[in-house]
Structures are given as C-alpha cells and as structure tokens.
C-alpha cells in the first residue's frame, strides 16, 4: 500500500507544476473616460460624446474590444433583461408600450481619424464588438471616440429610467467589457447583482436645465456657486 501511494504522488506532482506554469499572471486593464452629456427633459433623451483611453495591461494582443451598450437592454421584450423578467413572473416589461422603452443609438466608433468597424453581439443587442484599426499590443494604449444618444425608458423596469422629470441614470454610456486572465466578460444587462467593470478615471461634463439638482459621486469643481444655489433653493 505504501508503494502505491508513493507512485500516485509522483504522478500528481508534475501535473500541479504544469498547472502553475500555464496560469496567466494577474493583470487589470485601464480605461479612462472623457464624457460630455446633455439631458433633454422634454423628450427624455441623453445626447453625448465619449472618448476612452484603453490601456492593454494584459500579455495578449487584442484585435477588438467588446463594449457594453446596456441601454439596449430596455429596447424590446426579448432582451436578456426582458427574458429574466418573464422568468421571474414579471410581465410589465413584456407588455410595455413603445414610448416606455429605451435604447442607445448614434454610435460611430473612431480612432485616430479612422472609422472603426463594429457589430452587435449575435445573441445580445446590448453588447457590441469594436474592431481595432491596428493590433493593440501588451502595454499599448488606444484612444476610441463615439457620439451616442440614449432614449431613457420609463423608470418602472430596472435601474435606468425616469419617472416624469425625475431621472435615475445608471449604466448609460458605452463601456468596455472586462478583459482578464479568463478572457472577455461580455455580459448582458440583468436586473440582479452588480456590474463587473474595469477601473479608470472619469472626466464627465453634465449639462442640465437650470432647475435640476444632481446627486452623484465625484469632485464638485464649482463648489461655491453650486452650494450658494442649493442654499437659496432650500430657503
């Protein structure tokens, strides 16, 4: 019995070494955003432009980048979100009127003056794949820009939406999917849990009608003026 156990250990040990050698090292991509967005509260629409700086910190060469365009989850009843709602016995989204739904459009991805080819995911329209003009090598950075607009859904289905002229704006801009040691994580929007995202910086300019109050994270750059306005409004 001792001899058999010893042989089993010899057989398992090389497999463990092989597994460790093929494991990719930990890395994390960097995505920095510059976004300029304006709210039209008459037609419940966001009009925006976005530029990202995507740094490939992986050991792999990238030919394309998957983007989440999650407002399209609200586009029709048979999206992943719509199917989830039905599976949970919720029929409000299935029977929603067209004016209650939402979507993202106007996308035109460019990089260094080159128009980039892109396509919707074959299964989920709230995901797309953007093909790079040149292979993105390890350690390199690419800049990608696009205009876009979001027709905001009625806020009765999930986190993104509006109730009259009160707006809850979440997961609204084109966002690269996470690429880690396990590959791409291009996941459709679902009404559960949180969202796996890359880290980076956000420089966001928001233009609103004068009578709106914004609740958001970030640094207040016009603090004195804004606090005076809020104080007067409170009075």
Architecture overview:
- With about 240 residues, the protein is an alpha+beta fold.
- The protein is built from three helices and 15 strands.
- The strands form five sheets. The chain has a five-stranded mixed β-sheet, with no helix packed on it. Strands 7-8-3-12 form a four-stranded antiparallel β-sheet, with no helix packed on it.
- The chain is globular and about 60 Å long.
- The N and C termini lie far apart (about 85 Å).
Per DSSP E runs of 2 or more residues, the count of β-strands stands at 15
Q: Strand percentage, roughly?
A: 25-35%
Distance between the termini: 86 Å
User: Based on helices, strands and strand pairing, what is the structural class?
Assistant: alpha+beta
Give me the strand/helix succession.
HEEEHEEEEEEEEEEEEH
Oligomer: single chain
Poorly predicted segments = 1-19
Please state the overall shape, judged from the principal axes of the Cα atoms.
globular
- Please tell me how large the radius of gyration is: 23 Å
- Give the helix tally: 3
What helical percentage do the residues reach? 10-25%
Could you tell me the mean pLDDT? 90
Order of strands across the biggest sheet? Answer: 4-9-2-1-15
Which sheet architecture does the biggest sheet show? 5 strands, mixed
Short description:
By secondary structure, the protein is of the alpha+beta class. The chain is built from three helices and 15 strands. Residues 1-19 have low confidence and may be disordered.
